[in-house]
Design goal:
Helix 9 packs across helix 10. The chain has ten helices and 20 strands. The strands form six sheets. It has an eight-stranded mixed β-sheet with strand order 7-8-10-11-12-13-14-15. Strands 1-2-3 form a three-stranded antiparallel β-sheet, with no helix packed on it. It is an alpha/beta fold.
Length: about 350
Amino acid sequence: MTAGESAMHEGLLYDKRPDGKIRCRVCPRLCVIAEGRLGICKSRQNLQGRCIALNYGKVCSVVADPIEKKPLFHFHPGSRVLSLGTLGCNMRCIHCQNWQIAHADFFEDGDELRDLPPEKLPYITGNSDCQGVAWTYNEPTIWLEYALDGARACHDHNLYTVFVTNGYITAEALDIIAPHLDAYRVDIKGFRPETYKFLARIKEVEPIFAAAEAAMHRYGCHVEIVTNIIPTVNDDEETLRNIAAWIAGKLGPKTPWHVTRFHPYLELSHLPSTPIETLERALAIGHEEGLKFVYVGNVPGHQAENTTCPGCRRVVIHRDGYRVGSKDVKDGHCAFCGEDLNIAQAPKAC
């Protein structure tokens, strides 16, 4: 029995072609898939002219995490989230920390996965002392059908929902999932197509920026941005300033930007770790471009892990890595001066 025959959940977005091939419309790659073959994400198969989502209800990771680990600093701070992962990805990042699952193949590795029906997610979440569910570890866009059913089940039980994503999604796929998401945490790996072509093996970047803007402004998701700053790849002043200016201009100055430290890995093992000075320069650039909340990540103990009120300049959330200490926040506002901190506290209505 093939992987496709054992997981017959039909995909939501695809076209049938006269030649028997199908065209997937979940991500901007728009893969054309021949009979019996998989798309680039390795999770969608053409089985007799139907697009089968092989990953539906199939998980390789189920972990209770601090929400700060995603990282999300302005979304239910101090809460715990049930983090789910499966196999596959629509990018091929040459520095991927989770390459063992992101670059995996359902034909070769699918038998190792566990079944987790979406209707069980609220109960596992509650039993794990979590307040929501995050689709993470690999790219959740390719888990579209399962994420949709799971998010609906979570909202039925007043649990929040999170996508930790590379943002490479079509407008029509976003239209399906975003109304059921509370937070959209997206990686911005660079600003130029050349950077994405080198790092992730994709040619276009516009859909990533457009999806982030739509997630916030059209669908009301809480959005935070992460840039893993890699020496010689995306650490130049022009790139960092362009990213910061885009966040401030298109998403708003109170949108959090996490500038995180790169460590040598996979095909970029020859590069050094990001100097702290580079991260602090990115921090300064973010503030110069008008951002109110810029965080330094992967540097435990750095002062820029904390949330400082842009109004009275007091520290309102103290952090030590993923641990949250004191919180002087009331209904998303500074408890000292009343400044709006853009901190989301409750799931949106669905």
